[in-house]
Amino acid sequence: MDLSSISDKVASIDGQISDIFRALSNGFQKLEKIKDPNRQSRQLEELTGKMRDCKKLIKEFETEVKKLEKTNDSDVNKMLNEKKQFMVKELNSYVTLKKQHAKRVEMFETQGNEEDEDGLVASSMTNQQLIDSGNKMMDETDESIERSKQVVQETLNVGQETTASLKAQTDQMNRIVNELDSVNFSLKKASKLAMELGRQLATDKCIMSMLFIIFLGVISIIVVKIVHPKNKDISDIPGLAPPVVDRKLLWIPHRD
In this protein, which residues make up the domain named T-SNARE coiled-coil homology (predicted)? Predict the structure, then answer.
């Protein structure tokens, strides 16, 4: 998409950033061919200045894009953000190249200015002195490698301890989850038993109430019967009327 159709200022900034990226690419290619440390340093300073300018332009580009967010649709805003991310990524790649070349220049300058223990520069050293110096550098390199190995081993040990700790914590969490599941199951079972007990108690209460009412009725009838024994209504109630005794006249014949 042509950025000029979105904003002339955005298109202008994009063009300037593209020019700087081309200049940085050509500058680092030229830097690879330079052997003199002093010229390398000057070239790096020039490239560093271009990278600072590029960073400022990217900031301006981001500011203009934010101003246009409300007027642009989502697709345009997405494209502009991806454009900005590409610019930042490209600039970071050149910053990394700059750091690598800066280390090389510093190493060359240090080697060029270093002297051995006798005060002799490398160009004036004899073959034996060069061999001794090389052996010394190799010994120092071996010691550095051993230190690096120790650091790596310590890092591995820490990683193993961390892994074991995480495994123990994971096992503990699994046990807690299992216990929670058991508690939840017990709560559900207890709730079910409570509901069944409630229903049973309700049924028992109904039966007890009916028996109590019958008992009160019987007591009431007995009390009324005692107070009013001649009450016919009470006498007609089955089971409460007095027993009827059948009396038969016994005829005993006289014997002459």
Answer: 135-197
